[in-house]
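User: Predict the full complex structure for these chains.
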Amino acid sequence: MSERTLKVVFQPEGRTVQEQPGVTIFEAAQRAGIAISSPCGGQGKCGKCKVHVSKNPPEPTPSEIEVLSEEDIRKGWRMACQARVAADMVVDVPLSARTSEQKILSDGVGVAVSVDPSVARRFVRLSKPTVEDLRCDLDRLIEALPGVGRHPAPLNVVRRLPGLLRQNDFGVTAVVSNGALVGLEPGDASARCLGVAFDIGTTTIVGVLLDLATGADLGVAARTNPQIAHGDDVVSRIQFASMCAENLAELQSRVAGALNEIMTELCAKASVAAGDICRIVAAGNTTMEHLLLGIDPTYLAQAPYVAAVRSGVSPRAAEIGLMANEFARIALVPNIAGFVGGDTVAGILATDLHKSGAIRMLIDIGTNGEIVAGSRDRLVACSCAAGPAFEGMRISRGMRAMEGAIERVLMPRDVEVGVIGRSRPTGICGTGLIDAVAELLRWGIVDETGRIQEQGDLPQNLPEPLRRRVIECESAGEFVLVPASECGGGHGIHLTQKDIREVQLAKAAVFTGIQVCKKTLGVSDEDIEEVMLAGAFGNYIRREMARRIGLLPDMPISKIRFVGNSAGAGAKMALASRSRMREAEEISLKTEYLELAANMEFQEIFADSLFFATPKSE
Amino acid sequence: MSERTLKVVFQPEGRTVQEQPGVTIFEAAQRAGIAISSPCGGQGKCGKCKVHVSKNPPEPTPSEIEVLSEEDIRKGWRMACQARVAADMVVDVPLSARTSEQKILSDGVGVAVSVDPSVARRFVRLSKPTVEDLRCDLDRLIEALPGVGRHPAPLNVVRRLPGLLRQNDFGVTAVVSNGALVGLEPGDASARCLGVAFDIGTTTIVGVLLDLATGADLGVAARTNPQIAHGDDVVSRIQFASMCAENLAELQSRVAGALNEIMTELCAKASVAAGDICRIVAAGNTTMEHLLLGIDPTYLAQAPYVAAVRSGVSPRAAEIGLMANEFARIALVPNIAGFVGGDTVAGILATDLHKSGAIRMLIDIGTNGEIVAGSRDRLVACSCAAGPAFEGMRISRGMRAMEGAIERVLMPRDVEVGVIGRSRPTGICGTGLIDAVAELLRWGIVDETGRIQEQGDLPQNLPEPLRRRVIECESAGEFVLVPASECGGGHGIHLTQKDIREVQLAKAAVFTGIQVCKKTLGVSDEDIEEVMLAGAFGNYIRREMARRIGLLPDMPISKIRFVGNSAGAGAKMALASRSRMREAEEISLKTEYLELAANMEFQEIFADSLFFATPKSE
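Assistant: Here is the predicted structure of the two-chain assembly.
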């Protein structure tokens, strides 16, 4: 009865997604955070989205036969917008099929980034001193570097200057950052100036290697955040760090170690040296950014939850234990508040929300959901403590989205579930939970107050297979999603009344955040041009299901779009362009943080949001 | 027959000078680099220059009896402008008798300096974060510090910020430098913000402790430059440093060690902590500045003799091994060229030469003499390799100005010499040499070509005692200044023909520099309003003697004045005032360096200058 999902692996990144049969490779890639170009808008006409399916290429479609060559088809090339997932697949996405990596995932719209990095390696061959030209070495160098000012130069640079000049026939490479001389290298090292943009999540860290001269993407690599040994969520990490300086140092060194591993992998893949990495930009939630810098995050977890630093710390990479060019600095995308971090600012940057003429909304759902709403005129943001229900926690048979998790539920006349991997289901993860509750609501098994109906109160039209699954346990209703006989764990997967309540609390938290943003802006759902779902979880949500349970605003599905890893995309932009980094600073300063606890109407809106209301849009 | 000089010790500095009987305490203090105020212009009317003579107070003069109280006189108080040196003395100069230490030694004119230091310790008590005010700690601090901008803050400062704020009820001291937050201390540490200005000579290092809040002078201390173990002059130090990195590091660490000793002494005397020293400014010749920063000076000694750095290096004091406040930075007064250093720029700054309406000239005579000439419209500078003759070297019986050195010579009818200390003469130092040659010229014993006359060619009017001193040795003339029987060293002190030649070469080098400056500016002696003699040696020269041998321009003695340690005074100004430091940068950029080797007329002028010409002014 359970429907298996299919594994699609995208190469060369090696990113894997679980998909239902029938979705296009384009959609699957989107979920994997890989942007495939689609100049014809997915009509199967241009062939620009040509990818290579090296395992189980599907039957070619008529469009593919028309557009692609016979040889291409024979070798496994398909058009991502046409080919559909029909089996476990391995898909190679060549550079030719990718959107410029300076664009963000976004239904083909894309945001162009000018390459204007804050750091450059500039080779200069200086005129030699003569009796007629007795300028000192430093003045000689600075004056040969247009745009570089007379800032105080680092002592270690000046110390090596006279020798380096004369050992290299006055040809040296200046490392220039934000108009200042910051480093000096022998000879011509200007061929490569690389940067790495990190998206530092509480769970996963992703790094992208960029050629800062051209903006070219040279690879991506990821690691689990090794701080996870000291807690799954930010609060437990803060508690650990608060205990003593050694703990803080350990968390700092763990995350720095992961960044180093990622950089090592990136450099190996791209056959470049770590010494060519001249700049690092990282975006993470406020706690992750504090921990990376080794700044005590204690007060992020104590009312009124203020950050030590929003912006304006940019140490040398070596100072925080990162391996890169000795002159490389790391900059963090500035945060907005203790619970709205640099990752959110990066997301705003990547989606150009701060330049939008129309009202748009950016939602990243996690244990802490972040919501930003507004336009170029005004931006408001809030953080909502959804709790870990969507991570599968506090749910009787809840689990993370991993092998064995029910990640999709449909109830046409009986229950059909999609399970991650090839094993029997052992629990249910966040997306499956949303689906299940949405379907229970549709059939009236759960009413708008969230109560599981007793047998006698179930709707007349309820199909018998579903009706049989409603049982009573400890004087509350319960729904048998998968009986023990079909499960992997020796027990059935039931949804309890308490599970429904947890979903209600979580969705109410998010929805309240959305409402407070709307109220503050004075707009209603109709005024919202678009809702953008960001982040790992948002990317897997089925929009109609999320809307049905009231997790998302009641608006047409076409106005709700996935923007993938917008934090990572924003970090990349901030790395490639200093004007983009300046924009990030402006976003950080101008976005109004709404503290829900301080909102007078919060309790009222929250109480309202606990109900399930049938969306008008459906 | 030899006339002893008298030792005058000035307290509390402990500076000692050797003086002839009859000079006023005021003049002696001037030579010691101590500025005594003289509102009445030395007429003995105001009593403001009242000092305490604790050893051998002279008989009171009529003015003193009129102005001072009987008790004062009995206790040893005298007026510095009236009391004359008659024995070895110890003079205490109270604060009341001092010119504001923001003024430079200068016949009562003085240059006022506004106290506008680049560093300040500012105590702020911040409003605490509330739900209505969730600014991060750093923004909260910066916004409470008017005039401080959002520069990147040092990581170590931000790391301690959250804890320090909360442990101190949000009251902290910000160390602010040039409009940027550079440090953070618990509680209110704003009571003291000190600075030390160093004059780093090749031989002697002098440090002055200043209260940067008030500009008050808190003491002075000096040490011999311990680099002297590796050579007396800059060239031998450069050679030593050039050999290997360890040698350079040793010279750096020696000078840093001396600075630390001086700071330790200054702090002990003033009962303050080294941690209160928040800024250090140093002026020295270009080699000394390079060595202090640990920058390889090799190329300062290789044609075309360019510096590694003119300006724009300002490391943390700790980075170069200096003990001070952990956030203190050191700045160097910028240099003009490889052989015209920050000490010369400091001298220009202190004498306001760069603001002068009239043409003036600043001369610092040493192994390398520096000459600056001009006005606010144009400044030119050159360095002249006078050689070490004035240091007593390359002279058959030459010696430094120390115990036993003949430092003054007069030949009324026979030779009278002044000797430093109480011992018999053992040699002759620079000032004695100048005197001796000047007197030999006056009597015609040496002719204008520099030749010591043979007995037969000596002038008719030459007194017999002098005539007898002219002997012949190895077919050249020689002058017996002090016969062996009156000397301490077992040999006589003779001036040989070669000695005269060395003096000729030295004075020609300086005079050529003066001429090239004048020619470049297109001015003659009459156009020069004033010649200022700076530095240790210049301060002891007898002007009429120096002028007679052609070391100084042919102009009235009244136009030649001593400006004392103008380099130290300039360093103090640059420490006390950042606008003064900016002026120093402008001076460094605008002063034209004249490379004598590149001057087409150099050889010609130099050859002319070798002659001794009787000055018209005499």
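The first strand of chain A starts at residue 3 and ends at 4.
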